[in-house]
């Protein structure tokens, strides 16, 4: 992958760069604020953009706004936003665009999963942090249909919402793909969500059911 | 009254009068009772002096010049001519008869002068042209009287020669005199009617002026008959007339120039009270003498002593009831106002009236709808009204301002639009009478003001605390947490650089180090949990859902999507935190409902659980902090917790919208 990184803290920026480089990816440019990021994106046309959500000058949501702008100009480009903490609103509205990811920063320490999520986003898939998904699920504590799910099916639902493919879910849960497919089918049936081959649309449907957004 | 110097013309007239009077005194000395000589001289001089003052201060007011001229005429005709007549007759000088002729009608011009003064006081203008007829009537009347008197054969006795050498027999002088008297008395009555009418219709300053003069005129009307009646007892009664004639010009000049300086109402009031008390005491004394005299024998010293004793005993209660009667009759407003204040104070003591209502009592008494009672708050130096609103600008806007000063320092002031001494005196008296209510009102205002300040500072402190907590949260996330992530990444990189050839132990050590870093990050996140979370930036809903996610039991969240004041949101969040924590820790709840709902401008936050219930209404530290926060925002916090029926923590926060 060809990657552009935007992160205002130099140490972390270098660390992220080395992480991708070590995995054999190409770092085209490193930016320390949103303006630098936008010009680097315009220059290099990367496959994937990694952006810190809080950057100078106000340290609120510069990264998120830059990400939205990038998706507007380059809908095909993958954008992965890193955050210090869970912010459901931003996370969900960004993921809805597709080719988008929203992860907590400390996920990078689990190198394998982090790179897999980055790869997914670069290929047009989604990555939603498990924390965010858990918040969405617990926010639906009164949903009887969620209550009907078995424990395993619940796990599968959360991984689906995180944007994982069936293969990814199988790997994570140490199950066969066929078993996962069966679980996925049961979950979607119980929740009344239409089945879809398209991974992204499946994520949207699940998120819509969790009340995070309007179904399309 | 900027001009402090006397006008040269007025001063000359005054000087002339004084000179003539000195001559008159020298001429008359020893030839008549000395009180007569001196008092009438003083009378003319005072009159001339009053005229000179008024003429100098108000040169356009004819009354001043009227006084100057008539004082001079009086000095010449009544005093100097009389003196000459006496001295000439005594020393055998010439002109004795002529001087007596002049002096015989010497007092007539004074009468004319007073009729004119009645008509012109206080401004020097007649109310309308029609009144000129009265002036003409008075002048003609005076001339006829003087002529009819002086040239009458009936005046023979007074002449040193025993015969009026100027008597005119051809004209019936008695008839002229009678017509003249009739006209003069008619003019005087008309002038009196005018004065009374003016007094009734006048307001404000003019009323004060007229009261002064009317008072003096009433005394001048009452005194002469009394004096004449007493003449029978002692000729010294003439002193009274002279004194009265001296007092009249003084009263007139006060009326015109210095009416604000003295409280005429008090003067009238005291005169009435002491006059009536004197008359009544005299009657009591006389009656006692008669009664005791019949019993003990005429002229008994015991009777006199007994009567004196009775008078001494009766004096105080009599004075009080006469004062009350006079107040009721002649000063109804003041009497009513004081009674109203007394009744109000009774109501206040009984708890049926609020002390702040004292302002209304003052307002009605003056009466002036814009009257305000303001208080000076010690410490802050602020001036506030009875409701505690700052009124610094309003208490120095040029209106009348009566300071309320029961001790060393003024505690407040009554501010009102008023001019008269009368009103000032009434307000001053009422403030004195209502001191208790005013003091309580001031204390209440001060207390309210301080409470409001404490409330405001509490809000500020909590807001500052919120900002500070937010900063710490940011520092934790953006500082320490990011650094730990960087260290973790560096370790991962090291692991990568070691490559596959590295020892199994080194790989495990690095894995363990990364795991430690992850634990540290988790702990930091827990630490930040007690602080307003970043989710609160996105609103109550996200913050509540994050709260629910962390809870080990299902928490159902209902939260509005709209945003509120940051302080309100923070308080609502902490209420949610505390409620959920308590439900889990103390109540063994299995299900929790966390809701926030906006109703009627209030944000109602409720945490309801299905636990054991029976919680103490207010327990310990966590809730105390919460109720402080809630109270600072002007809200309420309550707990319902029946044993076995779960617990509900409800807070209502004013949220404006």
Question: Can you offer a commentary on this structure?
Answer:
The complex is a heterodimer of chains A (216) and B (657). By secondary structure, chain A is of the alpha/beta class. Helix content of chain A is 53%, strand content 14%. Chain A contains 11 helices and 6 strands. Chain A has helices at 10-22, 34-44, 62-73, 88-95, 111-122, 130-138, 144-147, 151-162, 166-173, 177-191, 199-209, and strands at 2-6, 26-31, 48-52, 78-83, 100-104, 126-128. Chain A has a 6-stranded parallel β-sheet, with helices on both faces. In chain A, β4, α4 and β5 (100-104) form a beta-alpha-beta unit. In chain A, α6 (130-138) crosses α8 (151-162), α8 crosses α10 (177-191) and α8 (151-162) packs across α11 (199-209). The longest helix of chain A has 15 residues, at 177-191. In chain A, 50% of the residues are buried. Chain B is an alpha+beta fold and 657 residues long. Chain B has 19 helices and 9 strands. Chain B has a 5-stranded mixed β-sheet with strand order 5-6-7-9-8, with helices on one face. The model of chain B has no long low-confidence stretch (mean pLDDT 82). The interface between A and B is medium-sized, with 31 and 38 residues.
